[in-house]
Design goal:
This protein is mainly alpha-helical. The protein contains 2 helices and no strands. It is rod-shaped. The N and C termini lie far apart (about 190 Å). The model has no long low-confidence stretch (mean pLDDT about 85).
């Protein structure tokens, strides 16, 4: 019976040895999987932090956009008045420029007349030809 027991013990030992080697292989695979999970979790934590920063930045951008939109709506409401005032200002500038231009042209004209009158030689005046006195016969038709 000892031979049978030895044979059974060797069979059990080989089965146990196979199971232990299988368990060692599985533990090795689990160890590499845990290392992979560890590195993946580190990357995930980094990405999550970046996502939080991005989310905060987007929220700030939308708040700023809302502020710009409000200011734009106020400017759009004032736009007709601004256009009207702009047209008035343009008309006033054109009117003042025209007035200055006409004044300068008038002053130049007057100055040139005065200057030409200063240098012109006056013609000697001749007495107007004397008309003969009207006679009584000439005045008869006037009654």
């Amino acid at each position: 019976m000892t031979a049978k027991n030895n044979h059974e013990e060797e069979g059990m030992a080989s089965i146990l040895e196979f199971r232990v080697s299988s368990l060692e292989a599985m533990v090795g695979e689990i160890r590499s999987a845990v290392k992979s999970i560890d590195s993946s979790l580190k990357v995930l934590a980094s990405l999550e932090a970046r996502h939080a920063q991005t989310s905060d930045a987007v929220a700030r951008a939308f708040a700023e956009l809302k502020d710009h939109e409000d200011r734009l709506r106020i400017a759009e409401a004032d736009m007709p008045t601004m256009r009207l005032v702009r047209n008035w200002v343009i008309a006033g500038v054109i009117g003042c420029t025209s007035l200055v231009g006409v004044s300068v042209a008038g002053m130049v004209t007057i100055a040139s007349r005065t200057q030409s009158a200063m240098y012109a030689q006056p013609e000697p005046r001749q007495p107007a030809p004397r008309q003969p006195d009207a006679t009584r016969e000439d005045l008869r038709g006037w009654r």
